[in-house]
Write a structure and sequence with these properties.
Belongs to the ROK (NagC/XylR) family. The chain has helices spanning 5-27, 32-39, 43-55, 122-138, 179-185, 199-210, 269-272, 274-280, 284-290, 292-304, 308-332, 342-345, 347-364, 381-396, 405-410, and strands at residues 30-31, 59-65, 74-79, 84-91, 95-102, 107-114, 145-153, 194-198, 217-223, 227-233, 236-238, 336-341, 371-374. The protein has 416 residues and is an alpha/beta fold. Helix 1 (5-27) packs across helix 3, helix 1 packs across helix 14 (381-396) and helix 6 crosses helix 14 (381-396).
Length: 416
């Protein structure tokens, strides 16, 4: 569709509204002059945009700052976070975790329910997600506008308008699924945007923001049923051309390694994936019999008491991870690699071998080698990441919140 000057003007205004709201959300309370300097907008434009956001109930004046000079006191602006909410849904093998969060990212309601989805039938999953969204919307604070729904699940998601789930073997989805469209069709009358993102990408975003030092570029590598991950650059998920960037499990780390289900040889998952590591440690039967959790705990105990077979398996996995990190660093020049899932559980025994692999290059160029750290958020990482993704998307497009008399009245409410 050809864009018109009027269409461009509307798009620019929406972006500018988002710029102002994001600045107040991150730096408020602040004055209009501070917003103008930070965003590069003229003071007159900021005044107009602030009036618009106030009419939507998203900003309110919060006191006066007197600089002590001759100029007029500056009126400070603060965001009203509960004027709008987002719904985040995390799809796992057996259940849905769902949360309602305000524009500050604070969770105001959450629940976990089994989805009973039939393997290979995406429509049943869409039914379960739509039901969860309706329940979450009903639990939102009175007067809050639902402005975004974000859903995370295993499997690469195409970075296109359809946000197609390309494949999800854990759910029996062996062909592309337009999950967003399926969910939207079950939520008639709701105009807020719906996003579908990869669960490891969501976890990567959450871990990026949870780290004590802020890095420009982070790669997240997590082991669960296999090895997944994500790339976060300057606070944004990077998905690549086809939605599969940040999937390190199928990065070859050995030219003559064992064949992998992906068609390559010597992939990282064949050395550091839970099944490979547990099998090498002599715990493969326990994994197949009792599942990942008990087997992972048993390996932790074996490593802790110095079991030779367990230590050998962890050493091989650590060397494979170190090799992958060397390749990732050379390609992306990132600041930090974060290990999550069972890799975080086994981190104390993996780290020495990882460091050994990195040592040669680090001795030559010590200032550019990434920090290798342990994930901090555990099993909450994905849900927190979906919440953060939805929050940032909502802040970027505040025009989804209507302007009306009720919004004007709510703008006088105290921020929570």
């Amino acid at each position: 569709m050809e864009t018109t000057p009027a269409h461009d003007s509307v798009a620019v205004r929406r972006r500018n509204l988002g710029s102002v709201l994001r600045h107040v959300a991150e730096h408020g309370p602040c004055a209009r002059t501070e917003i103008a300097v930070a965003t590069g907008l003229s003071h007159a434009s900021v005044t107009t945009l602030v009036a618009d956001l106030t009419a939507r109930g998203l900003l309110r004046e919060d006191g006066v700052l007197n600089s002590g000079g001759r100029g007029r006191p500056r009126r400070l602006l603060r965001m009203v976070p509960r004027r709008a909410v987002t719904v985040a849904v995390q799809i796992s093998a057996e259940q849905l975790r769902v949360a309602v969060a305000d524009l500050a990212g604070a969770i105001v309601w959450q629940d976990a329910v089994p989805h009973h989805s039939a393997a290979g039938v995406p429509a049943t999953m869409a039914d379960a997600v739509a039901t969860a969204v309706r329940r979450a919307e009903a639990a939102a604070p009175p007067g809050a506008e639902l402005v975004r729904v974000a859903v995370a699940m295993a499997g690469p998601v195409a970075d296109d308008d359809a946000q197609t789930v390309l494949v999800a073997p854990d759910f029996g989805w062996l062909r592309p699924v337009r999950l967003r469209a399926l969910i939207a069709a079950r939520l008639p009358g709701r105009t807020c945007p719906i996003d579908v993102i990869n669960d490891a990408n969501a976890a990567a975003l959450a871990e990026y923001h949870a780290q004590p030092r802020r890095s420009r570029g982070v790669v997240y590598i997590a082991a669960g049923t296999g090895i997944g991950g994500g790339v976060v650059l300057d606070g944004r998920i990077h998905t690549g051309s086809h939605g599969i960037a940040g999937e390190p499990g199928h990065m070859p780390v050995a030219i003559d390694g064992p064949p992998c289900a992906c068609g390559a040889h010597g992939c990282l998952v064949g050395y550091a994936g839970p099944e490979a590591l547990l099998t090498a440690a002599g715990l493969g039967d326990l994994l197949r019999r009792n599942g990942l959790g008990p087997a992972a705990d048993q390996l932790t105990q074996a490593l802790d008491r110095g079991d030779e077979r367990a230590r050998t398996a962890a050493d091989l996995a650590g060397r494979a991870l170190g090799t992958a990190i060397l390749s990732i660093t050379a390609l992306l020049d990132i600041d930090e690699v974060i290990l999550g899932g069972t890799l975080a559980q086994w981190f104390p025994w993996l780290e020495p071998s990882i460091r050994h692999q990195l040592a040669g290059r680090q001795a030559l160029v010590p200032d550019i080698e990434p920090a290798v750290t342990r994930a901090r958020l555990g099993t909450d990482a994905t849900l927190l990441g979906v919440i953060e993704f939805a929050r940032r998307a909502a802040l970027a497009d505040p025009a989804t919140v209507p302007r009306n008399a009720q919004a004007l009245n709510r703008s006088a409410l105290p921020a929570s």
